[in-house]
Amino acid sequence: MIKALKISAIVLTASLATGCASTSAVDDLQLQIDGLSSKISTASSDAASAQAAASEASRASAEAAARASAAESAANRAAQYAQETNSKLDRMFKKSMMK
């Protein structure tokens, strides 16, 4: 009976010590969770900003590609006109030389 009483006292003391440690551990975990929640919120905000910037860059890139394509088309037309003008001048020169 005394042996059971000693064991009960030890178990009671251990459970009280563990209970106090558990409350402190829970408080520490809650602080860590709160800190992580703010970091997650910040990371989510940063990710949203990065996504918006990437979307804007993609739109700007598409716009730049369209402008480059238009410039290439204009350059090709100018080259074609130059070639046609050169051919006309060549024909005119040949006609003038035959007279």
Structural class of the secondary elements?
Answer: mainly alpha
Helical region count? 1
Mean pLDDT: 84
Largest beta-sheet details: none
Would you mind describing this structure in some detail?
- The protein has 1 helix and no strands.
- The chain is mainly α.
- The radius of gyration is 42 Å and the shape is rod-shaped.
- It starts with a helix and ends with a helix.
- The mean pLDDT is 84.
List the defining traits of the structure above.
single chain, 99 residues, mainly alpha, 1 helix, 0% strand
Brief rundown of the structure:
The chain is an all-alpha fold and 99 residues long. The protein is built from one helix and no strands. The chain has one helix at residues 2-98.
